[in-house]
């Protein structure tokens, strides 16, 4: 059993005795902290359920990860070191099972692979907000608290068997009113209460006479009318419709979904779902589908990388591959990287598979996510679409995992456990005999490397758009030359001309501000010079406090120059303009343009404008509805958006990400330019792309402008190999943070020494531990941050060597430590 206490000191399974069934109720009788409601019920103790156990001088909630009968004649004996006579007993189970033995095995693997607390790994498999927990009350006592969310049961009033024969007394005004209201159909009790005031006693009297029946029905939060109708269709399909409103079939599959509300039944036409039409596949799509079918038939966790340009029809390949898997009686899990992509993706998948599609992402409320989780657990959902956490939903018998835009950094979790969704999906697929499909127009270097080195990884190219249209031409605009010619605007003359031409004809434009927020660097606006580290060939990070430049790889630092060291220009810019400032300047530019003016809207999509629920859909709908418009945003607009009338894409500044002091900076710049370029010219109208940069000769920008991945790899891979970065090595980034910098620095250096000794003893050749240094974000949320980077050969098990160090170390009261295995960046 794993205690639900996320602390390093308790990060190990504990063994408890399972009591006889009669002890469950006895454990709750007379206990002051036994609540009413779900926690007052007794559940069978099984793998995956939450249990209440004694722990020291208190009680705790834990999750059962294995069960065994020890000490029986002929059976397994007690593990060494366990005294059966001293075992404490589980008091009772307080939930249904959240996961099975396979989920428990995955949690254990995550804990070891990513050197993370077991409790955090187990928590991935539990319903959002739906887990009981122990809380410390004001009276100093611990008590069991009910889950924050759960099922929502609405009470409905329906016509009873004696409705027609029953005649209320003339003075029974409310009874008359209720029966008159029911002649129009079924109603919620809440609706009757809103119309007539308190009706509890009235309904009780009518129910006693058989005139009405009060039914409790499950309500799915956040479902639009069509989604609610779809949920009922999915359940009817899974459980079997009796034709009378009742549901037949497996009780387990239909639990919680019987007797759908009248509002749902009224809009359901009773017809089976008509899938959206399937287009004729291109030769590349057909080849990709064959490769996926072969991987599914192999049932050994094979991976297919669908390497297709934007608009090449990768989604249609996913849809038809999933259709084949569903026909075999299995299910599918589809991951998308951005919340902004989810509505469009869900629309396409529901169009093909109806309402057997469940959705999971972080912008849903806890209640909505709980309902979707429970919908999946019921067995009614056959396809799950969502962000990386959708991997851990209780979807049974998965035959295919699809990871769209696999190169995206959002598939890497940034808190414990710091897992990568691609690696977890591959592990799950090997265990279950499923296949994995990775899709991208710009596959990650790691994925390309594995396709070249590993037998079970296959790459399939889709080099052309599905509609036969050409990729838009990309023009690189040298902003250093613009500045030399006297321009001080953030918009080049070429971009302003293109905006006027396209918008005046009623077309749309997408403008990307290539920004990643915190990192600052110096750039000379005269010659494009960026100060770089003489040892690491990465840009020096500007530190405002102290006015110095530093390398966060080797520790080199220098004073920030007043003049450009190359051309002596005083025009040194500290980079990072926000989208709001760009929007203000763009508004002024458009208002002054002949044929454009104030009537052309600017829709801004960034962290500020998309913070509210449903904001992504609302903003994209505004953009789609406008005749001519500009969509201005950060990286969230660079992928997955499909608008026929977008003919112009502009990248305001391609250099911000290019100059980040991180080993993936060039790869991300190349990916981003190619991805956002694909938003233009997707239908019959031709498209064009303008990329503004002060680094016109940089390899990632030249390669992206020519759609030339080979050029980019020829420049990038030798640098990665020489400097020792993935895919040629594996890494672990040990993060150390706390309120006092001296304590953080001391512990980081101590860990670096201990890790160096550990790798010398157990790592072998090719291992190295870099000195402890401050992170790029050296201070964040009033905490100081240092890190220690460990590198090892690409085929080495970095976790196995480092795990003993972190399992045996005692937690520090003032300083926190975490390990990021296979980090996505070192910032």
Helix- and strand-based class?
A: alpha/beta
DSSP E strands, number: 32
Given as residue ranges, the uncertain stretches (5+ residues, pLDDT < 50) are: 22-40, 224-270
Task: Please describe the biggest sheet, giving its number of strands, its sense, and whether it closes into a barrel.
Answer: 7 strands, parallel
Number of helices: 25
The share of residues in helices is: 25-40%
Walk me through what this model shows.
- It is a single chain.
- The protein is of the alpha/beta class.
- Helix content is 32%, strand content 20%.
- It is built from 25 helices and 32 strands.
- The strands form 8 sheets. It has a 7-stranded parallel beta sheet with strand order 12-13-11-14-15-10-16, with helices on both faces.
- Helix 19 links the parallel strand 24 (602-605) and strand 25 (629-633).
- Helix 21 (665-677) packs parallel to helix 22 (699-705).
- The radius of gyration is 30 Å and the shape is globular.
Question: Brief overview, please?
Answer:
The protein contains 25 helices and 32 strands. The chain is of the alpha/beta class.
Write the layout of secondary structure elements.
Blueprint: E1 2-3, H1 22-28, E2 50-55, E3 58-63, E4 92-93, H2 101-113, H3 118-123, E5 133-136, E6 142-145, E7 152-159, H4 173-182, E8 187-188, H5 189-196, H6 200-208, E9 212-219, H7 225-239, H8 251-254, H9 262-267, H10 283-298, E10 303-308, H11 314-327, E11 331-335, H12 342-353, E12 357-360, H13 366-377, E13 383-386, E14 398-404, H14 421-432, E15 435-440, H15 445-453, E16 457-462, E17 473-478, H16 479-484, H17 493-504, E18 508-512, E19 522-524, E20 541-543, E21 548-550, E22 557-559, E23 572-574, H18 579-591, E24 602-605, H19 615-625, E25 629-633, E26 646-651, H20 655-658, H21 665-677, E27 688-693, H22 699-705, H23 709-723, E28 729-738, H24 741-762, E29 768-769, E30 773-780, E31 783-793, H25 798-808, E32 815-821
Parallel strand pairs: 10-15, 10-16, 11-13, 11-14, 12-13, 14-15, 17-27, 18-25, 18-26, 24-25, 26-27
Antiparallel strand pairs: 1-3, 2-3, 2-4, 5-6, 7-8, 7-9, 19-23, 20-21, 21-22, 28-31, 28-32, 29-31, 30-31
Helix pairs in contact: 10-11, 21-22, 22-23
């Amino acid at each position: 059993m794993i205690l639900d206490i996320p602390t390093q000191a308790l990060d190990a399974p504990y063994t408890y005795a399972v009591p006889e069934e009669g002890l469950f109720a006895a454990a709750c009788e007379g206990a002051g902290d036994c609540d009413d409601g779900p926690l007052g019920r007794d559940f069978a103790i099984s793998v995956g359920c939450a249990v209440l156990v004694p722990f020291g001088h208190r009680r705790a909630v834990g999750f059962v990860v294995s069960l065994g009968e020890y000490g029986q004649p002929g059976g397994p004996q007690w593990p060494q070191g366990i005294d059966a006579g001293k075992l404490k007993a589980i008091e009772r189970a307080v939930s249904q099972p959240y996961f099975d033995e396979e989920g428990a095995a995955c949690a254990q693997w995550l804990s070891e692979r990513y050197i993370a607390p077991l409790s955090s790994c187990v928590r991935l498999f539990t319903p959002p907000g739906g887990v009981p927990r122990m809380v410390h009350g004001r009276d100093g006592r611990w008590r069991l608290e009910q889950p924050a969310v759960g099922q929502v049961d609405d009470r409905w009033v329906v016509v009873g068997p004696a409705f027609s024969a029953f005649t209320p007394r003339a003075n029974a005004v409310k009874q008359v009113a209720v029966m008159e209201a029911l002649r129009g159909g079924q109603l919620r009790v809440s609706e009757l209460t809103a119309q007539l005031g308190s009706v509890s006693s009235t309904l009780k009297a009518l129910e006693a006479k058989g005139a009405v029946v009060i039914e409790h029905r499950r309500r799915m939060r956040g479902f639009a009318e069509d989604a609610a109708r779809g949920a009922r269709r999915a359940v009817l399909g899974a459980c079997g419709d009796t034709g009378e409103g009742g549901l037949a079939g497996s009780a387990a599959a239909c639990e919680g979904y019987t007797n759908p509300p009248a509002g749902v039944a009224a809009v359901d036409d009773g017809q089976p779902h008509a899938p959206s039409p399937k287009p004729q596949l291109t030769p590349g799509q057909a080849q990709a589908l064959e490769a996926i079918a072969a991987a599914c038939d192999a049932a050994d966790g094979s991976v297919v990388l669908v390497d297709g340009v934007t608009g090449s029809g990768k989604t249609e390949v996913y849809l038809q591959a999933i259709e084949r898997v569903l026909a075999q009686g299995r299910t599918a899990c589809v991951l998308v990287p951005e919340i902004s992509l989810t509505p469009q993706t869900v629309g396409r998948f529901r169009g093909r598979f109806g309402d057997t599609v469940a959705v999971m992402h972080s912008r849903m409320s806890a209640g909505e996510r709980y309902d979707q989780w429970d919908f999946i657990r019921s067995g009614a959902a056959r396809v799950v679409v969502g962000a990386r956490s959708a991997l851990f939903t209780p979807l049974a018998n998965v035959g295919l995992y699809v990871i769209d835009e696999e190169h995206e950094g959002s598939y890497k979790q940034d808190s414990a456990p710091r897992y990568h969704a691609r690696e977890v999906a591959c592990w799950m697929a090997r265990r279950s005999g499923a296949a994995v499909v990775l899709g991208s127009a710009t596959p990650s270097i790691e994925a390309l490397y594995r396709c070249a080195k590993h037998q079970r990884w296959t790459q399939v190219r889709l080099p052309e758009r599905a509609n036969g249209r050409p990729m838009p031409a990309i023009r690189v605009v040298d902003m250093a030359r613009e500045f030399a010619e006297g321009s001080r605007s953030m918009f080049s003359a070429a971009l302003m001309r293109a905006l006027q031409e396209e918008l005046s004809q009623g077309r749309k434009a997408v403008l990307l501000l290539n920004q990643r927020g915190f990192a600052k660097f110096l750039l000379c606006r005269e010659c494009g010079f960026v100060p770089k580290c003489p040892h690491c060939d990465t840009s020096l990070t500007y530190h405002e406090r102290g006015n110095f430049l530093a390398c966060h790889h080797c520790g080199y630092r220098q004073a920030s120059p007043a003049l450009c060291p190359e051309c002596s220009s005083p025009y040194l810019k500290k980079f990072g303009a926000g989208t709001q400032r760009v929007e203000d300047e763009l508004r002024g530019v458009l208002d002054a343009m002949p044929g454009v003016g104030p009537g052309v809207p600017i829709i801004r999509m960034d962290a500020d404008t998309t913070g509210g629920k449903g904001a992504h859909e609302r903003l994209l709908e505004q953009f789609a509805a406008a005749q001519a418009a500009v969509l201005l945003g950060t990286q969230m607009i660079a992928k997955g958006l499909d608008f026929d009338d977008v003919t112009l894409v502009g990248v305001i500044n391609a250099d911000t990400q290019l100059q980040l002091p991180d080993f993936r900076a060039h790869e991300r710049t190349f990916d981003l330019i190619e991805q956002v370029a694909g938003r233009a010219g997707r239908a019959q109208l031709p498209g064009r792309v303008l990329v503004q940069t002060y680094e016109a000769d940089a390899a990632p920008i030249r390669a992206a402008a020519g759609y030339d991945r080979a050029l980019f790899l020829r420049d990038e891979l030798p640098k990665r190999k020489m400097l020792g970065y993935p895919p040629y090595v594996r890494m672990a980034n040990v993060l150390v943070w706390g309120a006092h910098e001296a304590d953080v620095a001391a512990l980081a250096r101590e860990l670096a020494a201990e890790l160096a000794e550990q790798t010398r003893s157990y790592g072998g050749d090719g291992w190295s531990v870099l000195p402890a240094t401050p992170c790029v974000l050296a201070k964040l949320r009033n905490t100081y941050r240092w890190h220690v980077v460990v590198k090892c050969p690409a085929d080495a098990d970095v976790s196995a060597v480092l795990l003993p160090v972190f399992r045996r170390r005692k937690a520090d009261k003032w300083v926190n430590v975490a390990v990021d295995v296979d980090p996505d960046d070192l910032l």
